[in-house]
Design goal:
Blueprint (H helix, E strand, L loop, with lengths): L1 H7 L7 E4 L1 H10 L3 E4 L3 H5 L7 E2 L5 H8 L8 E4 L4 H12 L5 E4 L2 H6 L2
Parallel strand pairs: 1-5, 2-3, 2-4, 4-5
């Protein structure tokens, strides 16, 4: 069963939380948070959430190097275009030891259309 969960991603991760646009907006306006846009630099330059830092998920060397410098105890907010990359990234970041990862459901597309 564990192998099946590992292969198909059905294993629940206790440090990853899906949040909606309203929850993210509240968090970023009321607190100083670690907000990371994991899209490509081109996607980021076409629009992003204010104060987000761009860390391209597809550039894995830079991705890992950047996240080793962040505070693993402080909540981490991430998003991508639609939520697929950020879901994969959240699992990876949990494996790196981040305690609370908030993944924007629907990604930047949902944020932009709110």
């Amino acid at each position: 069963m564990a192998l099946f969960s590992c292969l198909f991603g059905s294993e629940k991760n206790e440090s990853v939380f899906l949040i909606d646009t309203h929850e993210l907006k509240e968090a970023v306006t009321q607190h100083n948070v670690q907000l990371i846009d994991i899209r490509t630099p081109y996607e980021f330059s076409s629009g992003h959430i204010e104060n987000a830092v761009n860390v391209d998920f597809f550039n894995q060397n830079n991705f890992k190097a950047t996240f080793t410098k962040l505070d693993k105890k402080k909540p981490l907010y991430i998003y991508c275009r639609s939520g697929k990359r950020s879901s994969r990234a959240a699992k990876q970041l949990a494996g790196l030891g981040f305690e609370k990862i908030y993944d924007l459901k629907g990604g930047y597309m949902k944020w932009r259309n709110q």
